[in-house]
Amino acid sequence: MSDSTVLATSSWLRRFVAPNRPAARLVCFPHVGGSAVFFARMAQSLSPRIDTLAVQYPGRMERMSEPFAATLTDLADEVAAALTAPASADDGPLALFGHSMGAVVAFEVARRLQAAGRPCDRLFVSGRAAPTAQHRESLSRLDDRALIEEMQRIGGTDPRLFEDPELAALLLGVIRADYGLLEKYRFEPEPLLDCAVTALNGDADPRVSPAAAAGWAARTRGTFRAITLRGGHFYLAEQTAQVVAVVEAGLIGAGAHVGPLAATTTGGAQPR
To answer: I want to staple 7 with a disulfide (CB 3.0 to 4.6 A). Which of 13, 43, 84, 87 is the partner?
Structure first.
């Protein structure tokens, strides 16, 4: 999307909708191979009282000429620095929303914000098992055909993008780099977060079961809620209205019906 704007002087953050007297800020983190534009529809659907931003990772879209992040923790360091920069930070409530790989990045950013004395108020983790489940697959090493088949299995990528050899080569390079970040990432059990955590997941996700998503409860001392919606790994593309209702309920107190499946709430820091 060409009409995205950069927040202040940061190359990391994109805004797709101008906020109207924002009551809270939401920062969204994309999945493997994804870019900030993935969250444009969600930003357009959310209340204008929520200033919705999306992180643009290096090595893609208008940042294509920049090198990929070396590690996931390096990536988290950079985003946390952008969010705490004087031109980017404000005193309003802050929430982070990460999908798939983005959930892990958002989690690590939340830790850094907390350590810096600028904690987020809520973390939404979507389509990802708790980070205690280490990423042991070597998807970054798959050949092109196998990697394309994997991406088609989980969905979320227009298969036509793989039909053009030049475009496919660029996209597969981004995907491999992102999977490499997850494969090198080593989870540290401390510190726990103090913020509220909401885990969202699709009931037909081939990668993440509701039970695996519920493991995020052990990563916070705050309240925890697990919500399962209908759909696969990219359930949020089909359930945008439900996801928006959950986010708005968490940030500005809007009443929301979160779907036909169960939503559970617990106190944080469950047994690990």
So the answer is: 13
147: pLDDT strictly greater than 90: no
Main-chain dihedrals φ then ψ at residue 93, nearest 5 degrees: -60, 140
Token reading at 69: 């992040």
Question: Would you place residue 12 in the very low, low, confident or very high pLDDT band (cuts 50, 70, 90)?
Answer: very high
86 and 118 in contact (C-beta within 8 Å)?
no
- Maximum separation of any 2 CA atoms in the chain, in Å: 50
SS3 85: coil
Give the integer Cα–Cα distance in Å for 199 and 32: 18
pLDDT tens-digit readout, 41-58:
999 999 999 999 999 999
Confidence of residue 88 (pLDDT cuts 50, 70, 90): low
Instruction: Kindly report the backbone phi and psi dihedral angles of residue 118, in degrees, each rounded to the nearest multiple of 5, phi listed first.
Output: -125, 55
Is 233 one of the annotated active-site residues of the chain?
yes
Average pLDDT score over the chain? 87
Identify the active-site residue in 4, 10, 35, 100: 100
- Core vs surface per residue 175-203: b (16+ CB within 10 A) or e: bbbbbbbbbebeeeeeeebebbbbbbbbe
How far are the Cα atoms of 55, 68, 107, 220 from residue 121, in angstroms, in the given order?
A: 18, 29, 12, 12
The answer to whether the peptide bond before residue 191 is cis (omega within 30 degrees of 0) is yes
